[in-house]
Amino acid sequence: MQATGKVGLFGAAGAAGQVIAAALAAAGRDYRVVGRSREALEAAFGRDPHAEIVTWNPDDPASIRAAAQGLQTVVYLVGVPYDQFAAHPPLMERTLAGVTAAGVERFILIGTVYPYGRARGNPVSESHPREPHTFKGRMRLAQENLVLAAHGRDGLSTLVLRLPDFYGPGIERSLLNGVFEGAAHGKRAQLIGPVDVPHEFIYLPDAGPVVEKLTRTPQAYGRWWHLAGAGTITQREVAREAYALAGREPKLMVAGKTLLRVLGLFNPLMRELVEMNYLMTEPVVLDDSALTALIGPIERTSYAEGIRHAFEAARAAAAASARANPTAANAA
């Protein structure tokens, strides 16, 4: 491994950007956070002296280049609305052109299991065919292919780091977030079913130190890697543990594929979830032995500890909300 220059987190304000930023700060490294909204970036990173805040317009090539100027590594975390996945490839094309023009040397895409399609058998190693049968999988595959094709071009090295579904304290866009909020508020948790199939989740803060290490590991570039969670667990088991921490019995409301179809008649997001529901019935479980062989042992938070941290964060948020709005809390 070698020392490296400044890292830029593009699409930094989300949960993954915040855990990677925390790992960079913990390593004493300055970094740049890039996003559309200065307000969101200030809220997330304004108190960190290591953070430089830059806004961009990802539709404007000049803005992309300016946001990347002076960086050695870009970590790409840019999301699009779930019903606008067709935007992923052209957005990546513009970004790669901009970062290359700015002289960036390394580019990391934080990816998903979508490009694999259905698992031929678990756990899945990096040699598994990428054969997506869904529109979202095809868009993510096209995005990945652009990144990998850019490797070795104009001085740029690239890699893709694939993560499973994630969870953690205060992470609203997690499949499991409803469990922690339900347990903290003593209400029914809303989940996407089925809930009794073993599924892999990564405790997202565990990803931060791995990404930080990859920014200074030149030999990692030119391919994709897997970062796995702490084994598998069912959503019902997560609920059982979270509600037990609250001293309550689990209360669940589960939406399976049929209900998602019905809800999708009225809610575009629910309609988009139907296509990817195969991952709930046929999960993809990642094998990251190749990555551990490259960078050494990876610290993984156990499900028991991760569930406790996530529940405690949800309980603290519920208590703060009750203090801020006691009338609503009493009515509930």
TrEMBL record:
Residues 10-208 form the NAD-dependent epimerase/dehydratase domain. GO terms for cellular component: cytoplasm. GO terms for molecular function: aldehyde dehydrogenase (NAD+) activity. InterPro entries: Epimerase_deHydtase, NAD(P)-bd_dom_sf, NAD(P)-dependent_oxidoreduct. It comes from the Bacteria. SUPFAM superfamilies: NAD(P)-binding Rossmann-fold domains. This is Epimerase. It comes from Paraburkholderia aromaticivorans.
